[in-house]
Every structure is written in C-alpha cells, then in structure tokens.
Amino acid sequence: MAEVWQWLSDHWVVVGTYTFLVIDVILRILGLILVPRNRRPGSALAWLLAIMVLPIVGFPLYLLLGKAELPRKRREKQKVINRLMHVRAHDIPDSELDADAPSWLQSAVNLNRELGAFPLTGNNDADLEIDYDTSIARMTADIRSAQHDVNVLFYIMARDQITEDFFDALGDAAHRGVTVRVLYDHLGSLMHGSTYRSMRRFLDSCGIEHYPMMPIKPFSDGAFQRPDLRNHRKLLIVDGQIGWMGSQNMIAAHYDKRSNIRRGLHWQETMARLRGPIVAEMNLLFATDWFYESAELLAEDELLQAPADTSGTYECQLVPSGPGYVFENNLALFNQLFYSAERRISAVSPYFVPDESMLAALVTAARRGVDVELFVSEIGDQFLVFHAQRSYYDVLLAAGVRIWLYQAPTILHAKHVTIDDSVTVIGSSNMDIRSFLLDMESSMMIGGTDFMAKMHQVEDVYRSRSRELTREEWEQRPVPMRLLDNLCRLASAVV
C-alpha cells in the first residue's frame, strides 16, 4: 500500500490529468443523456453549451438549477390541495359570458378550466389604482374595516416608513379579535435585511401567525429543491368581501435600497381592487399557499363567504400557475389571447423574455394587422433580464410592434394585457420564462366594457409617460451593446 501511495505521489500530475479527463468525459455524456429530457430545445441547448464548455462547473449548476420541479412532498401536497380546491370550487356558481362577448373568449375560459383555473364568475366589480403610496393607503383602510379575517400574501414584504401604517393596521385588527394570516416569499423578502427582520418582529409581537413561503431549506421536503423556485403572488383578502391583486409588493417604492434612492429609482405598479363572487376564488388560492406552509386546511365556510355586493357587471376568472401545475397556465392563456386578437393587443411587462411560442404569437398578430404595443422600462433593475429582453426588439419592430419605453428613473413593474375591447389579464405574472416555469403566479382574466375603459385609461397614462422606440434608433445602437444583448438572451434560456 505504501508503494501505491508513493507511486501516486511521484506521478500526481499524470494521475490528476487523466482523472480530470475521465470526469470531464463522464459529465459530458451524462449531460447529453439527462439534459434533453422533457425540456424546450432552446433551454436544452443552452444547458448543454454550459456543460460542454466547462463540465466541472456546468454540470453541478445543472443539478442545482436545471429541474423546474417542486420536491416530492410539495408535489404530494399540490395533488391533495388541487383535488380539494376543485371540489370546493364547485360551490362557486359558473357564470355565462355576455351575449356580445366574442366567441373566442369562451374558448379561453374553457382552456383555463382545463389547466386548473377556477370557475368564471359574474356580478363582480373592480377598480384600478396606479399610484404606489395610494394603493398601500387604500389596502390599509380596508384592513382597518375588517371584522372577521384578513389574509395577506406578498412576494416581498418589509416594514419601512411607507408600509408601517399597513402593518399597524394588521396589528390593530389582530388586537380586536380579527384573524390575521400573513405569507411572504422567503428569499424575496429576506433580501431586504433590516426591514424584513423588523416585519417579522412586529408580527410576532402582535401574535399574528405568519410563514415564509418556499423557505430555503434545500432537503426539507423529501428531495432537493432548487432555490429559485419562488412564490411571486400578491394577494390581500379582507372578510372574504374585498380582494386586492396585481404587481405591487408591500415595500417602499424604492425597495429600501440606497443605490435606488441615490439614483432616484422607484417602481410603478398597477393594482386591482375587486368585490363580488371572485373574492371567494382569491380566498381559495390563498388557502392553497397557506396549506403548503402551515399544513392547516382552512374551513370551507370561512373561505367561501357569500358576497355582500353582487351589483357588478364584470366576469372574472382566477388563473393560478407555477411549477406545481403540469402545464404553463399563464403562457397558454397569453398565447390563446394573442392568437385570438382581432384589432388590438396592449401588453405591459417589466421583464419581457418570451419563449418561441409567445414571440411567434405576437409577431403573427402584428403581421396579420393587429395593432400590437408593448410597454417596457427604458432602464432595467436586473442586468441579465434587461439585456435579454432587448434582444427581442429587432424582430418585434420589424413585424410592426410598437415598443413604448417608460422613461427613467421609473421602473415600470406593472403586469397586464388587454385584448381588443373584450378582456384584460392582470396579476403578478411577467412575460418571461421565469414566470412561466419557476414562479408561482396569479392572473385574473376580466371581461366587461366598463373595466376595459378603465384599463385603456391606465394605458393612456403609461403611454404619456413613455417614448416610442423607433426602428431607426434601434438600428443605430453600438455593436458591443448588440453582442451583450444577444449573449444575455442565450444565458436567459438556461432554466
């Protein structure tokens, strides 16, 4: 044995070289076997490129980030809760579309139901809020009026000077006997340091039950869970009668970052306040996430409150999506609507990195004469995504899509789409691969002429604050910037 160690010591360079080469070849072969299975060709090629260029780094990264799937225990919970919510959803009456609704809209409703969405409900009312601080103030006022329960879920929650009154309202509600439940994404909120810790201490001091969603505990659910699977939803439900959803997180508009404050960066959002039968569906969706983190099944009679106001005229359908579903529900819905559009598509998305099917749907719509416009930010807060989305502007502009750049120093973070004068989709979902595959999202499809008028007013405001990107301007951008955009586009495919 001593002779063997002596030989290895004398020839360690040769042994190390051959060992490295063997491992290198094995990892490349494993990559060719494992990566292409049930994966988009673009994503598979990107991962294979990463593995082939540097297997020692690329393959471990694939093991860490290459599987967009919940671990076993969470998948089992998903199956249980999906069956239960399907049964409970039968207690929500199905609504019929108005007689003047386009025929393709019923197809979209049917598609949503097949993918796991809730029933279409009528007699709803909704209004919009696009002022950041005002929306927080209005949500706070609704909490102060609560009599029975308040259910809160935000991707990012932090207690700072802007949100302090919101949390005080939660504490006051708990002190007067209202049941308050709070969920927040673990990683999304944890990144905000002292204000996140302040929030947790405050909730504890008020005796409010709260849980971090998708906690960073890689092996706690029966298998490894990739750390970037996140719950990106934003929901507030008060007494089962008032529901808020949209794009806004519960944090100051500058996200409590010194660099943002120094640059004057702040976020622009769109939130919807809903009343009517649809609020019961929002409560059901909250209950699924509550069950994941607390293992508590909320009582049906608590969730499905009879709406006090049914005077509204809007049809609404709630569409959840995320890695717990078999199909990419939000992507399927967007594509269905894009192909159905006859006159106009207005899309607002802070992070626009579409897959091939969505890009084809938008380009096809523009080429067949539909007026297509896309609202994005002039500047970005996420380097990779910002440059990746810019790589799509060439083909969009060539097809006739109008691109509006929301002017700096504001980050346009709103997420909504309107199709003709028929339907809108608003919620937490971006139009990027992360929202389609990795994030748990909530989208609301809303029909109604009056609501469409409200949405068009919001689009008019955003258009007035934006400048249009022309094809001539885009073609004059520097060559190094083009190369950077295309490189980031390639990297963004690694999901």
UniProtKB/TrEMBL annotation:
Q: Where is the PLD phosphodiesterase domain?
A: 227-254, 408-435
The family database entries (CDD domains) matched by this protein are listed as: PLDc_EcCLS_like_2 (cd09158)
Membrane topology of this protein: Multi-pass membrane protein
Compartments in which it is found: Cell membrane
Enzyme type, top EC level: transferase
What GO MF terms are annotated?
A: transferase activity
Q: Where do the TM regions start and end?
A: 12-35, 44-65
Q: What is its EC number?
A: 2.7.8.-
User: Which InterPro entries does this UniProt record tie to the protein?
Assistant: Cardiolipin_synthase, CLS_N, PLD-like_dom, PLipase_D/transphosphatidylase
**First-listed, main subcellular location of the protein, grouped into a coarse class:** membrane
Quote any Pfam family the record assigns: PLDc_2
Q: Does the keyword Lipid metabolism apply?
A: yes
Question: Would you tell me the protein name for this molecule?
Answer: Cardiolipin synthase
Q: Which organism is it from?
A: Brachybacterium fresconis
